[in-house]
Amino acid sequence: MHTATIINGKEVAAQLRRDIAGMVRARAEQGRMCPGLAVILVGEDAASKVYVRSKIKACEEAGFLSRSFRLAADTSQQVLLALIDELNEDPQIHGILVQLPLPDHMHVPAVVERIVPAKDVDGFHPYNLGRLAAKSPILRPCTPYGCMRLLDAYGISPMGKNAVIVGASNIVGRPAALELLLRGATVTVCHVKTRDLQAELARADIVLVAIGSPGFIKAEWLKPGATVIDVGINRLASGKLVGDVDFESARDKVAAITPVPGGVGPMTIACLLQNTLEACEALDV
Ligand code: GUN
To answer: In what residue span(s) does the Tetrahydrofolate dehydrogenase/cyclohydrolase catalytic domain sit (predicted)?
Structure first.
């Protein structure tokens, strides 16, 4: 029976992290600063705590300076903005990451826009998104960037292909559309209002899904030979982690697919390190 190539994000990410650690050592030998990342977590979101811990651990393993800030859920936006102002001025800090989601009383655009674009290692600031839209990216959103690096690592070119994105979030779907457009794909973005998702998927050579709904995308909907990038990370009641695509049935139909866990997730963190190193190199001239 036909089985898909399983895209090993864990391995590609580990290689990228080794390369980054090597560049940090080379900087140290030249007497240059190590990259510094500040991570801010507001509140007690369980998934966010796990992600923040992994980001800090990855920083330390790559030889970065990491500083972590835990703020209570009822912290005022003013206090958060004052912390960002301080970090914007701190010469040891090259990247500032505010983990999302934020508590409801905070206004995400106001917080994101307070970070100076040169330290916006999440790539969420309108300046950085605008640069990506205008075909000259500087710091780019980590998850879509990680997806593109996975395609590159497996020699899968989006050029001229029909790419269908499912989910139009600010963090993944929208910037992923810009990344795929940049690489020459014909891009369709589907979302909750899309009338006929199955008809869109039937034409898709590349499918990128980020909706947060376990096993939502069925193998029957996919075009034989497609490449599937599954950004979903969903924890079932049993404790098992699964993606947004029904992996076990899809793997018999498509050409290549990312697993969950071990697909896109590790690439997000590796690209955060890449962005922080790039921010450091741009700031520490
Ligand atoms: N929440 C979910 N994904 C992300 C991410 O990539 N960055 C931040 N800051 N928050 C997130």
So the answer is: 7-122
Contact 275, 139 (CB under 8 A): yes
DSSP-assigned letter for residue 128: H
> Residue 53 has what pLDDT?
97
State in Å: Cα 36 to ligand 1 middle.
18
pLDDT digits (tens, 9 = 90+) for 129-141: 999 999 999 999 9
> Contact 177/209 with Cβ under 8 angstroms?
no
Instruction: Quote the distance between the C-alpha of residue 203 and its chain's center.
Output: 25
> Ligand 1 in contact with 244 (CB < 6 A)?
no
Residue whose CA is at the smallest distance from ligand 1 atom 9? 99
Residues 168 and 108 in one domain: no
pTM of the model: 0.97
99 is catalytic: yes
For the CA of 101, the closest atom of ligand 1 is 1
Query: Which residues, 6 or more positions from 166, have their beta carbon under 8 angstroms from its beta carbon?
Result: 173, 190, 191, 197, 201, 207, 208, 209, 210, 211, 217, 244
Annotated binding-site positions for NADP(+): 167-169, 233
What 8-state DSSP symbol labels residue 220? G
Are residues 111 and 146 part of one domain? no
Judgement on whether residues 193 and 252 belong to the same structural domain of the protein: yes
pLDDT digits (tens, 9 = 90+) for 38-64: 999 999 999 999 999 999 999 999 999
Rounded mean pLDDT, 203-213: 98
Q: What is the pLDDT of residues 90-103, one digit of tens each?
A: 999 999 999 999 99
Which residue segment(s) compose the domain that 168 sits in? 142-265
On whether ipTM exceeds 0.90, the answer is: yes
Confirm whether 55 is a catalytic residue: yes
Cα 131 to ligand 1 centre (Å)? 19
